[in-house]
Specification:
Blueprint lengths: L1 H18 L5 H16 L6 H20 L7 E10 L1 E13 L5 E15 L4 H6 L8 E7 L2 E5 L3 E5 L6 E3 L2 E3 L2 E6 L5 E8 H12 L6 H17 L11 E2 L15 H9 L4 E4 L2 E2 L4 E2 L44 H10 L12 E7 H8 L4 H4 L7 E9 L5 E8 L2 E6 L2 H5 L8 E7 L5 E9 L7 E2 H9 L4 H8 L4 E3 L15
Parallel strand pairs: 1-11, 14-21
Antiparallel strand pairs: 1-10, 2-3, 2-6, 2-7, 3-4, 4-5, 6-9, 7-8, 9-10, 12-13, 12-22, 15-20, 16-17, 17-18, 19-20
Helix pairs in contact: 1-2, 1-3, 2-3, 5-6, 5-7, 6-7, 6-12, 6-13
C-alpha cells in the first residue's frame, strides 16, 4: 500500500513540474489513475508505463494550454498577407515550429518576424541550428533570442486567458506565420469557430439592435463561415477579415450582446438539402430584396426576392411585371419612403450626384469608347435599360458620341462610382440644347440586396418575430439545424 501511494505522489510531482500547479489537474488525475489501476491489478509499474501516462497527460496539457477543447471546430483567419515583417506581443508566449511541433523560443512582450533570404540569415540560422537551404526563411527576433527557419511558426499566448496583440488590436487564439510563394509573410489567427463569431457579429450588426436580429446574424455568420471555409485555401487560411468574407475585428470588437447571440444559437446553421447555404446578407434592401440571378449568374432556390415592406403603395405591388417597371412608378416609390421594415437604416433612401465633367472623369478609363483605345468619343448620356421585377437596375447604357457601352448586374454599383445599391432611378438635367449636364441618382438600400436584409431583420424583431422565423423569411425553404445534435431541424417558435 505504501508503494502504491508513493507511486501516485511521485506521479503528482512529475505532472506538477511539467504543467505548473494551476494547469495540470486533469492530467494529474489521469496519470494517477493509470498508476493506481496498474498497482491494483498487480501490473509492473515500469518506465514504459510511466512514459505512456506522461504522453497522454502531455496531450491533454497541450490542449489546455491553448484554451481549446479537442471537440471545438477551429478556423484560420487571415489577418494580413504579403507582409515584409510582423510584430506580435503577449504577456508571455511560446513559439513553435508548426511542422515539427518543436519549441523554438519562449518570452514576454514583443516578438518580430521578418521575411529574409536564406543567404542574408545563413550565419544566424546555422548558429541557431536553423536551415541552410536556399530561398526565403522567417527570422524571429525577441529579447529571448533570434531564430531563423523556413517556418511556418506558431505563437501561443501563455495561457487560456491571455491574448495576442497585432497592430494594436487584441485577438483570441494563437498566431501562425508562414511564407507565401513570393517570400513574404502571411499572418493567420487560429481559433475556435464560435470565438471567431464573437469578433464578427458586432462588426456586421450594431450591438444595440434587437436580440432576435443579433441571433439571426449569428446563425447567418456561422453558416457563411462553414460554407466558405475553402475561400482562401490557396493562401493558407480559411477566411479573410474584411468584407470579401466577413468583417472580423477580434477581441476589441466583441460586445456582450453579440457574444450572447452566438451562445444562444450555438452550433445552429441554415441548410438546403443537408448542406450549409450560401447565407449572403446586406445592410438594407430599401423595401424589397432581390433574386440572386439578377445580381450574380445562376439560380439559387433559397435566394429569392421577398418583401421587406409593410405598406407598399397601392399603385406599386411587388414583384413588378413589365408594365410596372417604368421610371414613372419606381421614382415616386423611392421618393415616398414607404414604411418598410428596413426604414431605420441611414441608407434606406439616398441621393448621389455626378456632373457631366465628373462622370466623364469617372468613366474615361472604364469605357473603351472614351479612353482612346477604340476611339476618343465624348460622353452623351447614361440611361437605365433594364430593371428586375424587384425594381433594381439590371442594365445601364453609357451613350457616347461614337457608340454605346453596356454595364450589367451588380457591376453597375462600382462602375458608376460606388453607388450604395442598384435600386435607383437617374434624374438627368439637360441644358437648353438638350445636352445632359448632370446625373442625379435617387436610390434606396445599401448592398447587393440578396438574402438577409440586416435592417429588415431588426425591423421584424421589433415587430415580435423570433430569429428562426426571420431567417426563414429571407432564405426561402431552408432548414435551421444543429449538426452536432444529429442534424435535427430546430423547431420554429411562433412569430409573435
Amino acid at each position: 500500500m505504501r508503494r502504491r501511494v508513493r507511486n501516485i505522489l511521485a506521479a503528482a510531482v512529475m505532472i506538477e513540474l511539467l504543467s505548473g500547479a494551476t494547469r495540470g489537474r486533469s492530467a494529474l488525475y489521469i496519470f494517477g489513475f493509470i498508476v493506481y489501476a496498474g498497482a491494483s491489478c498487480r501490473w509492473k509499474i515500469n518506465m514504459r508505463m510511466a512514459a505512456t501516462a506522461l504522453t497522454v497527460a502531455g496531450m491533454i496539457l497541450s490542449a489546455a494550454a491553448t484554451g481549446f477543447s479537442e471537440s471545438e471546430r477551429m478556423v484560420r483567419i487571415g489577418l494580413g498577407k504579403d507582409l515584409p515583417s510582423v510584430t506580435l506581443s503577449a504577456s508571455d508566449w511560446r513559439l513553435y515550429d508548426s511542422i515539427n511541433q518543436d519549441p523554438v523560443l519562449s518570452g514576454r512582450g514583443e516578438i518580430t518576424f521578418q521575411a529574409v533570404t536564406a543567404t542574408e540569415a545563413s550565419a544566424g540560422a546555422k548558429a541557431e541550428g536553423g536551415i541552410t537551404t536556399g530561398g526565403a526563411i522567417i527570422k524571429s527576433i525577441s529579447a529571448a533570442g533570434i531564430c531563423s527557419r523556413s517556418g511556418p511558426f506558431r505563437l501561443l499566448p501563455g495561457g487560456p486567458n491571455q491574448v495576442m496583440i497585432y497592430a494594436g488590436k487584441r485577438y483570441r487564439g494563437l498566431a501562425e506565420l508562414l511564407l507565401d510563394g513570393k517570400g513574404r509573410l502571411t499572418l493567420i489567427n487560429v481559433l475556435p469557430l464560435e470565438q471567431y463569431l464573437y469578433g464578427v457579429i458586432n462588426c456586421e450588426m450594431p450591438a444595440g439592435w434587437s436580440s432576435e436580429a443579433l441571433k439571426a446574424q449569428a446563425v447567418v455568420a456561422r453558416t457563411y463561415a462553414l460554407k466558405n471555409l475553402g475561400k482562401h485555401q490557396a493562401e493558407g487560411f480559411n477566411l479573410c477579415n474584411d468584407v470579401h468574407c466577413q468583417v472580423y475585428g477580434g477581441l476589441d470588437r466583441e460586445h456582450p450582446n453579440g457574444i450572447r447571440a452566438v451562445r444562444e444559437t450555438a452550433g445552429e446553421i441554415l441548410t438546403w438539402s443537408g448542406q450549409p447555404i450560401d447565407s449572403v446578407f446586406h445592410a438594407s434592401c430599401g423595401g424589397y430584396t432581390e433574386d440572386v440571378a439578377n445580381v450574380w449568374a445562376g439560380e439559387v432556390p433559397y435566394l429569392k426576392a421577398v418583401s421587406c415592406s409593410t405598406d407598399d403603395p397601392a399603385s406599386l405591388h411587388f414583384p413588378l411585371n413589365s408594365l410596372y417597371r417604368e421610371f414613372a412608378l419606381i421614382g415616386p416609390w423611392l421618393s415616398d419612403r414607404p414604411q418598410a421594415l428596413c426604414r431605420r437604416s441611414r441608407a434606406y433612401r439616398w441621393h448621389h450626384m455626378l456632373t457631366m465633367p465628373q462622370a466623364e472623369r469617372l468613366l474615361k478609363d472604364k469605357v473603351p469608347l472614351l479612353s482612346g483605345r477604340n476611339g476618343s468619343g465624348k460622353l452623351i448620356d447614361i440611361r437605365v435599360t433594364g430593371r428586375s421585377s424587384a425594381g433594381r437596375v439590371t442594365a445601364v447604357e453609357v451613350v457616347c458620341s461614337n457608340g454605346t457601352y453596356m454595364i450589367e448586374r451588380d457591376r453597375i454599383r462600382s462602375f458608376l462610382g460606388g453607388l450604395k445599391s442598384t435600386l435607383f432611378v437617374i434624374r438627368t438635367s439637360y441644358d437648353k440644347e438638350g445636352r445632359a449636364r448632370a446625373f442625379g441618382f435617387e436610390g434606396g438600400g445599401w448592398g447587393h440586396g440578396v438574402g438577409l436584409c440586416q435592417a429588415g431583420a431588426d425591423g421584424l424583431a421589433r415587430a415580435g418575430w423570433n430569429y428562426d422565423a426571420i431567417l426563414k423569411h429571407y432564405y426561402q425553404g431552408v432548414s435551421l439545424v444543429k449538426p452536432d445534435a444529429g442534424g435535427e431541424e430546430c423547431s420554429v417558435s411562433p412569430r409573435f
